[in-house]
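Below is how a single chain appears once it has passed through the pipeline. First comes the sequence as given, then the structure the pipeline wrote out for it. We keep one example in the README because the format questions we get most often are answered faster by looking than by reading.
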Amino acid sequence: MISAVSVIPSHRPATLIRVTGEDAFTFLQGQFTNELRQPPGSATYGLWLNQKGKVLADSQVLRISENEFLLWSESSSAEIIRQRLEEYIVADDVVLADETATAHTLTLCGAGEALGQLGGGVPAPGRFVRSGDVLVFCGRRLPGASHEMVGPAKALAELCGQLVGRGAREVVPAELEFARISAGIPIVPADVGPGDLPNEGGLEDAAISYTKGCYLGQEVMARLKNLGQVRRRLRVVRGRGTPPAPLSALYQGEKKIGEVRSVGTQAGEFVAWAMVSLVNLAPAAGLSLEPSGPVVMTWDVHG
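Resulting structure:
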């Protein structure tokens, strides 16, 4: 279990892309699923979809100034996001600068008070604060006070040392992965990817605006909202012993009902995200890894 104040030391995020140019705002607004009509200092989580409304990537979009933005993602590939954007830059005055190779991130959990004590300030939801060369914004690793710090490796190492000196505990990514899945928080693309709709992964509330106007994939999102339901959904499952491999098929009786996505393990127990069909699903029945096989997973009560 993650302690009250925990930290993942400086590591490389999957994406840090700087977007500038006279048309930067209008271009990104027409590509991103969430509302970017926010003042400088905003940090907005959302998705990059294809024309069919499937999830290619996610990111936080930090608005540095009127027409300067940083796209940051812990797990979605910079190459995917860059290619996705470059396909739609035609006559727009937009410049993409991929800074991923030199980017560093420090992840904090439950450290809101500690951030205030370090003098950098605690960002409100949907905002970021700047402390020297370091940007701090609310993350999505765990419910509650989870923060991401982006900046030079040396500055983040010093901050990590100060936090540990004040009692924070260093955790390894595997420990955080178990806690993340247990808390019912999916990541892109491991849990919701290019074959999935945002609503199938439960991302509609956090990542989709239904009022901002046109963006790539918006028509599909509007249809899904009108329908009010999807035929598949991510669910959290649990078991003990040997964990299933990602993408393992899941069965109820003879019928295949879905597949495993990401998996976390801890002390002989495993927890996993599973994408399952809601058609003819037996909510009270367990799950097997082969047709009519033994039940090795059960539904998590919080998933």
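Helices lie at 24-29, 78-86, 112-117, 153-165, 173-182, 204-207, 218-227.

See the next section for the split statistics.
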